[in-house]
Amino acid sequence: xxxxxxxxxxxxxxxxxxxxxxxxxxxxxxxxxxxxxxxxxxxxxxxxxxxxxxxxxxxxxxxxxxxxxxxxxxxxxxxxxxxxxxxxxxxxxxxxxxxxxxxxxxxxxxxxxxxxxxxxxxxxxxxxxxxxxxxxxxxxxxxxxxxxxxxxxxxxxxxxxxxxxxxxxxxxxxxxxxxxxxxxxxxxxxxxxxxxxxxxxxxxxxxxxxxxxxxxxxxxxxxxxxxxxxxxxxxxxxxxxxxxxxxxxxxxxxxxxxxxxxxxxxxxxxxxxxxxxxxxxxxxxxxxxxx
Amino acid sequence: xxxxxxxxxxxxxxxxxxxxxxxxxxxxxxxxxxxxxxxxxxxxxxxxxxxxxxxxxxxxxxxxxxxxxxxxxxxxxxxxxxxxxxxxxxxxxxxxxxxxxxxxxxxxxxxxxxxxxxxxxxxxxxxxxxxxxxxxxxxxxxxxxxxxxxxxxxxxxxxxxxxxxxxxxxxxxxxxxxxxxxxxxxxxxxxxxxxxxxxxxxxxxxxxxxxxxxxxxxxxxxxxxxxxxxxxxxxxxxxxxxxxxxxxxxxxxxxxxxxxxxxxxxxxxxxxxxxxxxxxxxxxxxxxxxx
DNA sequence: TTCGGCCATGAGATAATCTAATCTCGCTTC
DNA sequence: GAAGCGAGATTAGATTATCTCATGGCCGAA
Lengths: 291, 291
Prior knowledge:
CATH architecture of the largest domain in chain A: 3-Layer(aba) Sandwich
Domain HTH lysR-type (chains A, B): 6-63
Keywords (chains A, B): Activator, DNA-binding, Transcription, Transcription regulation
Distance between the termini of chain A: 43 Å
Strand content of chain A: 15-25%
Helix content of chain A: 40-55%
Structural class of chain A: alpha/beta
Number of domains of chain A: 3
CATH topology of the largest domain in chain A: D-Maltodextrin-Binding Protein, domain 2
InterPro entries (chains A, B): LysR-type_TF_proteobact-type, LysR_HTH_N, LysR_subst-bd, WH-like_DNA-bd_sf, WH_DNA-bd_sf
Protein name (chains A, B): LysR family transcriptional regulator
GO molecular function, one term (chains A, B): DNA-binding transcription factor activity
Radius of gyration of chain A: 27 Å
Oligomer: homodimer
CATH class of the largest domain in chain A: Alpha Beta
Number of strands of chain A: 11
């Protein structure tokens, strides 16, 4: 249907009525009389050639067609409304509440935030770091960057980068490592992902080692511990390659463990806003130029 | 901004003008005069307290604020328009063009389509099978179900089910398999994913075997070949477990190879329609009830 | 029954929207 | 540098779409 034909006011009337299922109350929300709504909705039904409501003694019931139309319109008007609200201060501004797993925030995102700010000064990015156990809805987040295999319920996921893991340790400890078995002679720093070391050793045909010591909930802590010669750790290559280059950490073995990837996630229930789309594209292009 | 305050007509006027950057031409699209548009847009700017266009000698240029608003509105009105078009026949009907990787279509989707049809008779699902090499935009598909690790560009992915692979062969051949090495005595059926067998043998600490013979582009062909005693194949557990139960195939070893998962994918550029959302939720609930 | 809640309807009022005619501005062109 | 042109702005008045008011009909509850 072409732009000039869109019965915008009638659609709004229908949307409000579809939520109240009562013209009188819907009329209050729209600040008009019940009669006005009645006219609008009848007009819409005629225009579409479809019955949207079944009129029953005590009110309205949506027809099959009404059921298909109403939620789309509710979403559309909510989005319109939300977008217009972003102009309330006299210029556009949007807030994105972003959850980010600690290590990604520290090693990748935070250093690049100024670049995003420069490109999108009207978007107010609020970063909430976490240990990857993140509940988008419960924590009021719009987006979350997390580590995993992309399998989250009710979530649209966009892969950001590979999460292949490498073994790291301090330059001092590296001297003691001639072959893979030598790793067993030093503490192996553990994450809450239980079988990482087991799988790493399996690659080399070795049995699972006995693990002791504290469990860390972020690669950042593991990298720090490793850098201070407290043991060897498994950390994502993509995040900690700069530590290798600067000599803070050493990578004694080439083997990689694929444990998951980094993803940008959003609840399916919340459609993507302009700013969220801009952020996603900025992320994608940032990875694109690095590769 | 509350529903009654939404300046719908003015927003439509702005949206059209933002595409033409020329009030005169925009007026033609909206079937009104240039003066009408000029009024509407000035009214909108006053209402929002924001300048949306910079007036320049030969036309209009969007301001920063206009740039943020225009694409949202274009998407919104396109969606509205598309949704209303689905009523053109007098009742709601929507078409979803779905690309599906062969094996998933044959073993999982096709048998369940009647269930979806029953729940959503107004949605017309058109299934296009392919060998997983699918280009959503190029092939005019709305959605695609494919196998992989979720890493596709410009795509929102929702994981449907695990794609763990198992070794299968015919009951006859299974008798010859006492241990993993015995596999090397029979043809190993190849897919176009090159190193599957290599990785499967690596799990057992064995070197990569020499592979010969045809390469198949769908697990379905591999399963068929295996069932006819032409060799052993690697196929997804979730799709072919019924072949095991019926005795058509045998699973001689427990070991699983994780090669990827099955995903529902959609271009970020195309927002999800009602029907697409319904289809995604139907898929999710179908897997939920099975697990 | 009678009342109350709810939607439908038709005629007239109202307000939003549009048109027509005219201006202004600044670039082009000769 | 003057005329012409293409664009948006403006103003007043016309035109509609939209709304209100008053009323009617229907159905279930009291």
